[in-house]
Specification:
heterodimer, A: alpha+beta, Gyrase A, domain 2, Alpha-Beta Plaits, 2 domains, 6-stranded antiparallel beta sheet, 5-stranded antiparallel beta sheet, 5 helices, 36% strand, globular, B: alpha+beta, Folate-binding fold, 4-stranded antiparallel beta sheet, two-stranded antiparallel sheet, 2 helices, 35% strand
């Protein structure tokens, strides 16, 4: 078998994104996301923030926040650290592109295949997230993002709208376990 | 027990991992330290009945290291700081 015969598969092992619906809530596997982490280097924090500001069209997000933009979305990970996401189709080389912009102001690490995403859309997100994690989703606002533990896995929860849309980013190697946990919570809560 | 994270607000202590005495930040200078300094740094710890500064790791959260001042008699937490800021105040990471 030569390399060009390889078939790309999703984190759950299929060729197309999996979607599961329980009651009025749908959990959809996210397969079109390119990711890279950006950490400002010591003494370069202002340069890094200003370059990210130009890329995002807004200042990089503060603690517990996300900035949704085009083409880049940024999630706060820690002091002077962010996770940037973009469409995989147009930004598969996201880390290379960001490194070219940021230069010595930041360390950039590709994260695309380290994480997998699940989008929860519809009604009933709050009771599902209450079963899954410590996050009090009812107090979050659109644009909030928290790192938390779901099913013993370190995950990001990005809140598009606490009543209608939440994206969960978790470790890709444990995609099946994370999906199982989400499905169990959805069946239990809804 | 709730830990008031300086950046993220009140978080359940179950999200954190305890490391120990925050004096570990104050590592001896490798250029000047004597073997006795390294021995003391590696092995000697205070064990106070009262206020204690200790390192906690926010593993189930933003992965930050914190310096938490906790009363070992009452478990009351009187101060929570980002360990990075504490280390920089001590002249580290410059």
């Amino acid at each position: 078998m030569s390399v060009h015969d390889l078939t790309p598969i999703t984190a759950l092992g299929a060729t197309t994104a999996q979607a599961d619906t329980v009651a009025d809530l749908t959990c959809t596997e996210v397969t079109d996301l390119a990711l890279a982490s950006v950490a400002a280097r010591l003494g370069q924090e202002k340069n890094c923030a200003s370059t990210l500001g130009k890329l995002l069209g807004a200042p990089p997000p503060d603690a517990g926040k996300a900035t949704m933009g085009t083409p880049y979305t940024a999630v706060w990970m820690g002091p002077e650290q962010w996770m940037l996401g973009a469409d995989f189709g147009t930004h598969e080389d996201i880390a290379t592109g960001l490194k070219a912009e940021l230069g010595d102001a930041a360390s950039v690490t590709e994260q695309t295949d380290a994480w997998t995403g699940f989008d929860l859309t519809g009604d009933g997100i709050e009771p599902v997230m209450e079963l899954l994690s410590n996050i009090n989703l009812r107090t979050l606002a659109p644009g909030d993002a928290q790192r938390t533990t779901i099913h013993h896995l370190g995950c990001f929860v990005i809140c598009g709208d606490p009543h209608a849309f939440v994206r969960i980013l978790g470790p890709r190697a444990s995609a099946g376990s994370l999906h199982h946990a989400i499905m169990t919570a959805m069946k239990s809560a809804l | 027990m709730i830990i008031n994270h300086p950046l993220l607000g009140p978080r359940d202590s179950a999200e954190f991992v305890y490391l120990g005495d925050a004096a570990m930040i104050d590592r001896p200078n490798p250029e000047t330290a004597s073997p006795q300094d390294w021995h003391d740094y590696a092995y000697l710890r205070e064990n106070p009945a009262g206020e204690h500064r200790e390192l906690w790791f926010h593993e189930g959260g933003d992965r930050s290291w914190l310096v938490i001042t906790r009363n070992t008699l009452t478990h009351e937490i009187s101060k929570v700081e980002i360990a990075r800021d504490v280390a920089r105040k001590m002249g580290r990471s410059k």
